[in-house]
Amino acid sequence: MSRSQTLIVGDIQGCYGGLMKLLEKAHFDDKRDTLFAVGDLIARGEDSLATVQFLMKLGDRFSTVLGNHDLHFLAVTQGLKKAKKNDRLTPLLNHRHLPEIIHWFRQFPLALQATKHHTLIHAGLYPSWSTDKLLALSTEISDKLKGPDWVTLLKNMYGDGPDNWHDDLSDIPRERFIINACTRMRFLRNNQQLEFASKSHPSEASKELHPWFTVSNPFLDPQQRIVFGHWAALEGETGSSQFIGLDTGYVWGNTLTALHVESNSYLCVSA
Ligand SMILES: [Mn+2]
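A: This is the predicted complex of the input protein with manganese (II) ion.
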């Protein structure tokens, strides 16, 4: 009997066909193997509904962290926001099982420990946090998202500030910073301020902007690998084996990438 496999897949974005190609290539067996994702399961691709239905059927063989598109989808279901112009979420939003789908999404955290040495987060690890701290802050948000005030949490999450972290942040500014750092961060300014305007490859960004993974983090255990998505223009180029960027822009016509944990190798399919 072959050994069980653990796959961590990059941003699926509703690209059901790409996900199927990738899992076939891996000979993924849903009775034996485990699939993790780094968030943004849905939105721009051709079939967000089929993607969600497939992942829901995997039960506890699947887990994910939430991305900005996943949280935005939840906000849209509650009438807090309109779907973005390029989102193709209508079949999902109109589905008769929408309440179950909403419930399913709300159970997932912002960060999770997939293996002893792999921490998953959609955007990145803010450089003054350890992974233990990240997981604790994720739990703060997750408890709210699972609880009775979840719609209020989503209503208050929109906005770019505060842009700097303090341990004594509380209430809405605290929630918003945690959600922004975990799901939207790419670049930081010199004083570790979050900056959201630039989405480019680091080589094309202004000199005052630093990719979060290049900012020294004295709290990060060198044994921990940070596995993230969100930044398609990065094409996975972090320059460090400790930071594993899996968004390789399948939805933009490039590739869908997964880390195969047991062999520490990458699987890739082209759009
Ligand atoms: Mn994203």
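Helices lie at 16-25, 48-57, 68-77, 90-93, 98-106, 131-146, 150-156, 171-183. The chain has a mean pLDDT of 97.
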